[in-house]
């Protein structure tokens, strides 16, 4: 265990907190409000934001799509540059927040923003930004990561820099009331896999990281089991806070990380538009079965401490089956069958994307090469 840790995002959590942005954004700042396809116009969030910004000079950019594209976000970069925007306020889910992070970084660069993903440009500064979260899932509201798609080439790639860490995040669970069932389920699954990517690796001595990860997994399991009776303040608040804590840097400090499920899952989204969380549920069980020998100790620990299973020779296998059953109980499929051509062509398509993106040594041991990915995909694609 050796690490430096800070999470500098100030969180305003609870009902009615949107009004706190009035004083949280400097009064003389020119603000760009960025949002998605319009859900915030229908559920009153836009009106609350407009009211809170009454004393500010602000303008807006809308139309950020789920799995935000560089092509769309470059239009916002233009606005920031032309109008001298000082502060970006992202109002939405992970897509709007990630897209805004790209805008914040690309606006401080004269070249093509995609250079951030190819390594040609190192981000050294960005327009300050903050988030009003409307969909708990990604943790993007208080972390320094973002995932952007270049539609032209079907590339979906992440970047990370402390310069795009939100200055503050507003998390009002009431905004979740208008979320479709599908998005709430996506939130549970995405947060669950975020914990797994930082927990389900190899045995280590990080008692805090393991214990807190297990608490989050038990919460998410319970929230999933209570899905039918979810219409209450406590359920919403607990999901919102659990999803945030799953990817805010804390449980991942000083421990090994995996992230192979995410990197392979991103290709399903890029190729076939599979929802992010659903791509994870497709990849993860097959990946865990492929990696069961190296992950056996942690799978057994998870089986006991999260699912309450008894020690046995097949505990690791039972834990994977329990996870798969959990996803399926939420109506989330754990194999992909939505391809047009043959299974072999689908497997090859994902593999060639992985190769093109340099995703050839994934997992906590960098042991998932293309040959292992092929085996995983043979299981994950029906
Ligand atoms: O665009 P609008 O109209 O707002 O509708 C959105 C969108 O269609 C809707 N929605 C959001 N809040 C709502 C609402 N509808 C009704 N009521 C509300 N309160 O939900 C739809 C999906 O939104 P999206 O932002 O795409 O979902 P999510 O938060 O799951 O974000 C997914 C994106 O985040 C990336 C994913 O790859 C994907 O691109 N991730 C970002 C991460 C990060 N920055 O740390 C980590 C994750 O692993 C993930 O990769
Ligand atoms: Zn995720």
Automatic annotation (TrEMBL):
GO molecular function, one term: metal ion binding
Gene Ontology CC terms: cytosol
Domain Fe-containing alcohol dehydrogenase-like C-terminal: 185-348
Pfam families: ADH_Fe_C, Fe-ADH
Domain of life: Bacteria
UniProt keyword annotations, A-Z: Oxidoreductase
Domain Alcohol dehydrogenase iron-type/glycerol dehydrogenase GldA intervals: 8-173
Keyword ATP-binding in record: no
Cofactor: Fe cation
Protein family: Belongs to the iron-containing alcohol dehydrogenase family.
Protein name, UniProt field: Iron-containing alcohol dehydrogenase
Source organism: Vibrio brasiliensis LMG 20546
Organism lineage: Bacteria, Pseudomonadati, Pseudomonadota, Gammaproteobacteria, Vibrionales
């Amino acid at each position: 265990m050796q690490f430096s840790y800070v999470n500098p995002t100030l969180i305003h959590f609870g009902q009615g907190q949107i009004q706190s942005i009035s004083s949280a954004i400097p009064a003389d700042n020119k603000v760009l409000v960025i949002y998605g396809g319009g859900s915030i116009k229908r559920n009153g969030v836009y009106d609350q934001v407009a009211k809170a910004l009454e004393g500010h000079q602000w303008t807006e950019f809308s139309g950020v799509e789920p799995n935000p594209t560089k092509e769309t976000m470059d239009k916002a970069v233009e606005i920031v540059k032309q109008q001298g925007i000082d502060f970006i306020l992202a109002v939405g889910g992970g897509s709007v927040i990630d897209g805004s992070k790209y805008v914040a970084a690309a606006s401080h660069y004269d070249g093509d923003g995609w250079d951030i993903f190819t390594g040609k440009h190192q981000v050294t500064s960005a327009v300050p930004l903050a988030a009003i979260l409307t969909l708990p899932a990604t943790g993007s509201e208080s972390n320094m990561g973002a995932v952007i798609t270049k539609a032209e080439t079907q590339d979906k790639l992440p970047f990370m820099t402390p310069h795009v860490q939100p200055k503050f995040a507003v998390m009002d669970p009431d905004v979740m009331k208008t979320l479709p069932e599908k998005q709430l389920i996506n939130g549970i699954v995405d947060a669950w896999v975020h914990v797994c990517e930082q927990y389900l690796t190899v045995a280590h001595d990080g008692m805090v990281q393991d214990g807190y990860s297990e608490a989050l997994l038990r919460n998410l399991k319970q929230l999933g089991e209570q899905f039918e009776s979810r219409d209450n303040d406590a359920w919403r608040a607990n999901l919102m806070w659990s999803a945030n804590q799953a990817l805010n840097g804390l449980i991942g400090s000083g421990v090994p990380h995996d992230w192979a499920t995410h990197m392979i899952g991103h290709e399903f989204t890029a190729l076939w538009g599979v929802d992010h969380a659903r791509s994870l549920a497709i990849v993860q069980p097959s990946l865990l079965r492929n990696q069961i020998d190296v992950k056996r100790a942690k799978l057994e620990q998870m089986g006991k401490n999260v699912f309450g299973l008894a020690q046995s020779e097949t505990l690791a296998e039972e834990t994977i089956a329990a996870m798969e059953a959990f996803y399926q109980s939420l109506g989330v499929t754990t194999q992909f069958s939505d391809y047009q051509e043959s299974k072999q062509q689908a497997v090859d398509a994902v593999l060639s994307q992985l190769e093109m993106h340099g995703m050839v040594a994934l997992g906590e041991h960098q042991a998932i090469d293309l040959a292992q990915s092929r085996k995983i995909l043979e299981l994950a694609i029906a």
